[in-house]
From TrEMBL:
Transmembrane segments: none annotated. It comes from Cyprinus carpio (Common carp). Residues 13-147 form the C2 domain. The keyword Nucleotide-binding does not apply. It comes from the Eukaryota. GO terms for cellular component: exocytic vesicle; plasma membrane. This is Synaptotagmin-17.
């Protein structure tokens, strides 16, 4: 009889992302604050990681807008404190997904994927769904929450919005 090892559901820890969301119905603005990340998977063992976050607004299954943070050099615990605002009419809010993807900047080739989460109509997990419900229940008030990053394959499997972005 062999020895069996139990692995946690998330075999590789990809890191965490602290986000704040709020919606201003009168202005039709969805505000996203990318505050910081911690313990990001290091993508470049030689030079350290140079992470940045790409946030993409998907309405239904259509990519509407892409924005990204500045690149933080040589850290796996970056502080961004960057704010982005998306125009989202109130009647479309229930159809929106925000796709957050963390990359390690790579000068020599394409950027290295670190992790992703999706918050909104097609959330990638229970934490993300909770954050979205808290946002919908407390409009005009920022709602802050930590999220554990997921693999691209996991997000693509559970969130149609993840399949719509690069």
């Amino acid at each position: 009889m062999g020895i069996f090892c139990k692995f946690p559901t998330n075999e590789v820890e990809l890191g965490e992302l602290l986000l704040s969301l709020n919606y201003l119905p009168s202005a039709g603005r969805l505000n996203v604050d990318i505050i910081r990340a911690k313990q990001l998977l290091q993508t470049d063992m030689c030079q350290g990681s140079d992470p940045f976050v790409k946030v993409q607004l998907v309405t239904g299954l259509k990519l509407m807008k892409t924005k990204k943070t500045s690149c933080m050099r040589g850290t796996i615990d970056p502080c961004y404190n960057e704010s982005f605002s998306f125009r989202v009419p109130q009647e479309e809010l229930c159809e929106v997904s925000l796709v957050f993807t963390v990359y390690g900047h790579n000068v020599k080739s394409s950027n290295d994927f670190v992790g992703r989460i999706v918050i909104g109509q097609f959330s990638s997990g229970p934490q993300e769904t909770t954050h979205w419900r808290r946002l919908l229940g407390s409009q005009r008030t920022p709602v802050e929450q930590w999220h554990s990053l997921r693999s691209r394959a996991e997000c693509d499997r559970v969130s149609p919005a993840s399949l719509e972005v690069t």
